Amino acid sequence: MHRPSAAQAVDCPSCGSSLDVDERFPAWCPGCEWNLSPAAGPAPHRTPRQQRGHLRAARRRAAREALVRARVEKLYESLTEDPARRHDANWFGAAAIAGAVHLLTLAVFTGSVLLVCDDRWPVRVLGVIGVVVAVLLRPRLGRVRNDANALRRDEAPALYALADRVAAAVGGKPVDVIRVTGAFNASFGRLGLLRRSELTLGLQLWTVLTPQQRVALLGHEFGHGVNGDSRRGLWLDSALRTLSTLHTMLLPDRRGSQRGAMVLFALVAGVAQGLVCRLIRVVLRLLHRLTSRSGQRAEYRADILAAELASTEAARGMLETLLLEQSVQTVRLRLRATPRPRRTGGSGTQPPAVDFWTTLAEQVADVPPLERERLRRLSARDLGAVDVSHPPTHLRMQLLDQRPKGLPSLELGDAETTAIEAELAPARKRLAAALLG
Ligand SMILES: [Zn+2]
Ligand SMILES: [Zn+2]
């Protein structure tokens, strides 16, 4: 672990207050937010015309961001006022649109089957094409993958036992499959016709969390299984996939290789395809807008479940860690760039995989509170830039800050933590090699 040799004291160039500067991180002022987001470099040279275009684009972006900001803040307020509300009018609208999409698929299929049964062969050909289209548009269910990343229950009994405890505590069912990846995230989903549950744990995130924050992470993910998150439901999810497939299939071909009469035909077909595509995009955007509200609501609710389970403090710590993704990537890239001694037989040199996870955990734990605060405020300032399906992390933290502190209802003991770590060791070795490769 390396601490700064000396914290330099300098004055803020903007407000003059004294700043503690850690040379490993950008200097910034918590008082006036000077240098909260350090500029990437000098602005590129632009002609007056380019400059005007740049300003116009910036204004449009700002207006868009202001809209998103207003929307997420309104949702946050409505949630804090009425946390129990599950489905709003938006949700019913989205479900109705999804229903129309499924009906359309069904109609294409039934109509095409009728055409196939016709006596005239051109009609039959049309019917076959229709059936193919209907098959392509079928509701997609996803499937549980049994690859190297999937852990069996007998391979990781302690991890599954913890997952089962968490699932039971939030009122869910035991998970069917746990997968571990090298990512800095985690997710929970239901797949296939049997709706088997799959928990995915990204080891970069898991590693930099404290044991109790890991409980909070599991609480959040299993919370998704019980909080009525409509985006994850078969009805909406499959409709979104159907529309996306249709959009990809219909995108007009702009290569323009046709000749003679075909040019006119291609032109008409292209215009028709373009119109249908535009309509699909409008519907997709609408569905996204309608479901993102319930999706954000679901995220907040999962956070509350996590806090009830692992303690508000642990859940908040887990969220704060989510802001450290960039720091984690920096550590990883630095380690990847570091020349490693070649392993010669029995030389005793540690393989890089062993060092990687330890170094990652140490260096991320070493990120000082001032840098964490900078990242939190950056999340607050860049509110408008966030993906609308995820609430901004600082609002998720704010929601937890309003909760009583309280004690955890599920605690992860040392023996359990050690057992889980031992079970994850083979995956760690494999994934570190890939991450540093
Ligand atoms: Zn200042
Ligand atoms: Zn979530």
UniProtKB/TrEMBL annotation:
Main location class: membrane
Domain Peptidase M48: 169-402
Family, as annotated: Belongs to the peptidase M48 family.
Residue stretches spanning the membrane: 91-115, 121-137, 261-284
Cofactor binding note of this UniProt entry: Binds 1 zinc ion per subunit.
PANTHER family: PROTEASE HTPX
Localization terms from the record: Cell membrane
A Pfam cross-reference name: Peptidase_M48
Protein name, as recorded: Peptidase M48 domain-containing protein
Presence of the UniProt keyword Membrane in the record: yes
Membrane topology: Multi-pass membrane protein
Cofactors, names only: Zn(2+)
InterPro entries, alphabetized: HtpX_protease, Peptidase_M48
Keyword list, A-Z: Cell membrane, Hydrolase, Membrane, Metal-binding, Metalloprotease, Protease, Transmembrane, Transmembrane helix, Zinc
Highest taxon of the lineage: Bacteria
